[in-house]
Amino acid sequence: MTSVAATTSSDPAGLRDARSGSPRQRLQKQLAVPGAESSRVNDLLLLRPDTDAQTATQEPKEKSNNRHVVFFHGDIQNFQEEMSLQPEGAQWLSWSLEQVALSLGRRFPDRHVWVVRASRMYLHKFSCYHNFVDSNMFGAPEHSPYSSDFGAFHHLRALLSHGMERANLPDPVQPQGGADSIPSGFSLTLVGFSKGCVVLNQMVYELAGARADPHMSHFVMSVSDMYWLDGGHPGGSETWVTNKRVLKELASSGVSIHAHVTPYEVCDPMRAWVGREHALFIKTLEEFGACPSKKLHFEDEPPSIESHFRVIQEF
Hints:
The protein has about 325 residues and is α/β, with parallel strands linked by helices. The two termini are about 30 Å apart. It has helices spanning about 60-65, 80-85, 85-90, 95-105, 150-165, 195-210, 215-220, 245-250, 265, 270-285, 305-315; strands at about 5-10, 25-35, 40-45, 65-70, 110-115, 120, 125-130, 135, 140, 185-195, 225-230, 255-260, 295. This is Mitochondrial protein C2orf69 homolog.
């Protein structure tokens, strides 16, 4: 999946906000955005806030908010034009990155929505987030603790900084620095779906070190919510974080934790560890005093890939 450095804005047919029918909310595609290292790039989609949803009585300061949602997708999902060219992807076009961005825009109408495309799609199917976490070709991760030079937090911060600059957003976060590098009012909601949850898991492993680093702690403190949506990957374990030491750090971080699952992942007898790990993830967080929100969706339906994708709309 080779990218060309470019930025485009589009409102292709069928991708307008279904609520307003208006092209005001435009999707902006940013290609080859550099992260913490110039050689590590990801393509981004940016959906700006729905200005029609703002009331006429709001102050200008409220209109130019600096709240952001970042989404990490799963396998098969890609830009619509690329999915349409692949037999396995064409049948799931309603879950393309563009469509997901618009769905998230309806869920979070007052925020900037960023969709991060995995830097590699092995066989046009398997998402690999190796810019965020060491992974094999199928995207199965090898988690590691925080490093002051490299990691998921470093890469995300730099991606957002460069993406905000390309989009000419006011008060962009700086790629590095202390408290004065994080603009006032800046906040992050992180959403991982399926394979994309490996990025959130890596951040949990990095959390203790990142919170202790004065050059990263203020960026980390801007994370208000983390959503795990039906996490899964091809490895035989570590689908959900179960390490008590790192979960204790997450529980004490003040981040609101959300776990939404479907029978497709947590009730599959061929991958029984996924359900066990999910239960242990919730139980351990609760033991440490956290109150994660949790829900099993579509429990009365047969497990299917369709219901797996539908959790993106239902969470």
